[in-house]
Design brief:
Layout: E1 8-9, H1 19-31, E2 36-38, H2 48-55, E3 64-69, H3 78-93, H4 98-106, H5 116-130, E4 135-141, H6 151-162, E5 166-172, H7 175-183, E6 188-192, H8 199-203, E7 211-215, H9 220-235, H10 242-247, H11 253-265, E8 272-274, H12 280-291, H13 297-309
Parallel strand pairs: 1-2, 2-3, 3-4, 4-5, 5-6, 6-7, 7-8
Helix pairs in contact: 2-5, 11-12
Length: about 325
């Protein structure tokens, strides 16, 4: 499988972003050369896959398509369909209400659904909505390590690969679960990875035949602020190489995107990083960062090591 190192995360498609904006963002991403699309059965209240499938009609053979199972979306009804547009407008006016709204939305889903029956039903639904007869990657969505002991589920996933409905299957979860999966022999993984949590990225160097996808690379508003603060401190640190200090003097959104995306993907075993890019300015910034980085491979490695060894209290990271 070959695809762009910058992928398009579809969690917001028909979730916090409506149909028109979602299609515009998908189109801009494809036109910019992005050929990796990551969705899930639960995204967009269960409807993200359908819009992605509609968009990829006629383009399917030119992209790598990833989806997930294990979190079942709530059944939609007229009231929920009416409320969704209102909720999107509220978030635009009051971005601070997102956490409370996410908590309410999360209660509408049924997680940890990892049975063979759910696997087959979920995949068939995904294939129908995505308008395809196979997916390139199928992940167990936010799965606990206990799924690695479910021999019937793993055997069913192997059978789907043999049948051609799935090219590779794996697990999407947090780093401790991913480490257990790697030790158990799985080689297709997706996990959150940002500047303060590159430990698993380093460990991936020791594995062959890996397909690794990093999500949430910027880590949210608080983590972005912490990233800029740490980079400003490094710019003022005499121990930082002079040329790198000059590059870190003004860390705006463009410089931050450059550093974060390339620190995650360059010279690591992570092939794809999938930030949220529903706004055109974010897409352009991220594409430019990946195509024309200002940082050398040596500078990125120095920054990775320096950030990893800084005291946790200096950036609020948890290890």
């Amino acid at each position: 499988m070959r695809c762009s190192a910058l992928g398009f995360g579809c969690a917001a498609v028909l979730g916090r972003v409506g149909r028109k904006e979602s299609l515009a963002a998908l189109g801009a991403a494809y036109d910019a050369g992005i050929t990796f699309y990551d969705t899930a059965r639960s995204y967009g209240y269960g409807e993200s896959e359908a819009l992605v499938g509609e968009f990829l009609r006629g383009r399917r053979d030119s992209v790598v398509l990833s989806t997930k199972f294990g979190i079942l979306p709530a059944k939609t009804n007229f009231l929920k369909e009416t409320i969704k547009p209102l909720a999107r407008k509220l978030l635009r006016v009051l971005p601070g209400a997102r956490k409370a709204m996410q908590k309410q939305i999360g209660a509408q889903f049924s997680a940890n659904q990892f049975t063979v029956a759910v696997l087959h039903a979920s995949l068939e639904t995904s294939l129908r909505k995505l308008q395809t007869d196979y997916v390139d990657l199928l992940f167990m969505h936010s799965a606990p390590a206990s799924v690695l002991q479910q021999e019937d589920l793993l055997a069913a996933l192997e059978q789907l690969v043999a049948a051609g409905k799935v090219r590779r299957f794996g697990i999407s979860s947090y780093p401790p679960v991913i480490e257990a999966a790697l030790q158990a022999g799985l080689r297709t993984v997706q996990f959150p990875c940002n500047l303060f949590d590159l430990g698993l990225a380093e460990k991936l160097r020791g594995y062959d035949n890996i397909v690794a996808v990093a999500n949430h690379p910027f880590g949210g508003v608080q983590r972005i602020a912490q990233s800029k603060a740490v980079l400003a401190a490094l710019a003022a640190d005499p121990a930082t190489p002079m040329e790198l200090r000059e590059k870190l003097q003004a860390v705006d959104d463009t410089a931050l995107a450059d550093l974060v995306l390339n620190a995650i993907t360059r010279d690591t075993n992570i092939q794809v990083v999938i930030p949220s890019m529903m706004q055109l300015k974010h897409l352009r910034t991220n594409v430019d960062a990946m195509e024309q980085s200002r940082f050398t491979a040596e500078e990125l490695q120095w920054l990775r090591q320096s950030i990893a060894t800084r005291p946790a209290g200096e950036h609020g990271a948890t290890r």
